[in-house]
Amino acid sequence: MFRLINKSINNNNSNNIIKLNKNNIINRFCSTTTTTSINKDNVYDLIIIGGGLVGSSMACAIGNNKSTKHLKVALIESSKIQSVEETISNPIPDIRTISFNNQTIQLFKSIDVWDTIKSTKRINPFNQVRVWDTSGFEGIHFQDKDIDNNNNNNNNNTTMGYIIENNIVTSSILAKVKEFDNIELFQQLSVKCLNDYDQETIKSTSILPSVTLSNDQQLHGKLIIGADGGNSILKKQLQVPSMGRVYNQKAVVCTLKLGEQQQPNNTLFQRFLPTGPIALLPLANGYANIIWSTNLIHAQYLLELDDESFLEQVKDSFLKSPSTSNSSFFDIASNLLNLNPKGLSGNEIYMPPIESLVSKRASFPLRIDHTFNYTLPRVCFIGDASHLVHPMAGQGVNLGMADVKALSEIIQQSVQSGYDIGDPMMLKRFEEIRKPENLKMLLSIDTLFNLFTNNSILVTGIRNFGMSLLNNISPLKTLIIGVSKGEPILKFK
User: Fold this and answer.
1) Record keywords: Flavoprotein included (predicted)?
2) Closest by alpha carbon to 112, among 158, 45, 64, 155?
3) Are 415 and 346 in contact (CB under 8 A)?
4) How far apart are the first and last CA of the chain?
5) Which of 256, 286, 471, 473 is the most exposed place for a label (fewest CB within 10 A)?
6) pLDDT by residue (tens digit) across 402-421?
7) Domains in the chain, please, with CATH?
């Protein structure tokens, strides 16, 4: 489960412990600024730090709304920005792909970027998810039966979601950002520091917080939004405490070319191995992405293998199973309750043929993290800057996009009601809306991780008994499909 993660500015994961500084006021500042030294050209309504998927979507949500399109926005992105044409010039998909649920697709439509994303012909809908593990049972098959495979799946209401490359979506959104007159995009610039931020001073005076960029330019904002990821410099400087843990795992990712298939490429496959889950995500044009979460030693081993040996490891991880003894708790319960009437071992699950490895392999460390405070006076955190999850459920970005939707609506209400967009009461409403939803997902995924990485005989038997039981309860499966599509199930008032 969670344990308190103590964050300092210099994070060292070697001991899996990060030190907590209880003072929420920055001790490391740039030079002091006063209201008399502010250049009005450098004053913005919103300063968004991070121009990735979440930050750029936040900017578009403000620019594309008639109530907020007058607000002056600064969007700061440290990386080089590619055009959509540059992004799709390479026919081989990027190794970083994301599963977008239907609620996120609706957001893309509302900010008028979905048509651009579709025009790349690099989107792939999925309507089935197959989940099983190495213990030798048939697993769970989730299927949205309303999908029309001959309809090219343009109606996202008939899909569980879409698998799309991260850079395709990001470049499409940033192309839209450039169309708005009220948004100024600061490219290849990072935030050096937040200047002299003091909570009580910000709350009790008209002094606006400001940031200094890597080119020493200072920007002042009524609201500063941290959308700069799990290693948010804004959160580090504010020393905002969080809770979570390091998983001592890495995700190894790569892109594969699939062979000719007997079935449509619309199924997401995930198998739980003793070392962690491996997933195959279907991509457009006969490609697929692998996300293999495993322990640190095994991850390094996978990265060092030659391509042919690595492909063999991937195939074996999906298709090979140890034989069962027919005397485990699961086998006895399954026979008594007839939960696996076909006597399937798990090997019978259809897997698309893998033709070749077409990308380099990369890896990234895995952890779970939840920020105590999403908001401070005139500061707000969204996306990975406030919550990180294990990628096994593919919900990290979708949670961030739900943050965007909620915060943009709060800002719209503030403008319409005559409130300051940095008003603490309005920002607190955002936190009250999003924190319970994010916590539900984080706790659910962390519980699943603990359940599937515990290889004791008892836990394995109970786990497989429960999964087989779930596979035969249609209403519960329908609820889970709804969650994966982004539909709210349990609501907090």
Assistant:
1) yes
2) 64
3) no
4) 26
5) 473
6) 999 999 999 999 999 999 99
7) 3-485 (3.50.50.60)
Let me know: does 50 contact 73? Beta carbons within 8 Å.
no
Instruction: Tell me the C-alpha distance between 107 and 423, whole Å.
Output: 25
Q: 3-state DSSP call for residue 442? A: helix
Backbone angles phi, psi at 162, to 5 degrees: -130, 140
Confidence of residue 38 (pLDDT cuts 50, 70, 90): low
Residue 154 φ/ψ, nearest 5 degrees = -75, -20
Q: What are 296's two structure tokens?
A: 């640190």
- Tokens 């515990």 correspond to 454
H/E stretch holding 413? helix 396-417
List the structure tokens of 149.
């495979």
Q: Can you tell me the distance from the alpha carbon of 20 to that of 11, in angstroms, rounded to the nearest whole number?
A: 11
Q: Contact, 189 vs 214, CB < 8 A? A: yes
Residue type, 343: G
CA distance 140 to 479: 14
What tokens does 18 get?
A: 């990060």
pLDDT tens digits, 329-373:
445 444 444 444 444 444 557 789 999 999 999 999 999 999 999
Q: Which uninterrupted H or E stretch holds 116?
A: helix 114-119
Query: Which phi and psi (to 5°) does residue 125 adopt?
Result: -80, 150
